[in-house]
Amino acid sequence: MKLPVIRHIQRNNSIAQIESCVEVLESFSEYNRITEEEMDVIGELITNLCGAVEVHKMIADGMPERDAANTFAQKVLGSIDR
Q: Which Pfam families match (predicted)?
């Protein structure tokens, strides 16, 4: 997860665009000749895209952009610490 990447994606794309991209990456990941390295990259991309969708939704619910991004980052870091 890279917060600057998530912010960039969130600022420059709609939720629909991001969700379409996630669907394409998920489909691509099902191809049987994907290497472990490629799968790691796809996983990182999907994580960042899903983070951008969550930040978008928090902003739509009235949270300031900076707070939404920081809240998402804390949520992820909190789940890692468990």
A: DUF6952
The total number of residues written for the chain in this structure: 82
pTM: 0.87
The Cα 9–Cα 53 span in angstroms is: 9
- Given a cut of 80, is residue 78 above it in pLDDT? no
* Runs of H (alpha helix) within 1-82: 3-12, 15-29, 36-60, 65-81
Q: Dig out the tokens for 22 from the structure.
A: 């996630």
4, 49 contact by CB (below 8 A) = no
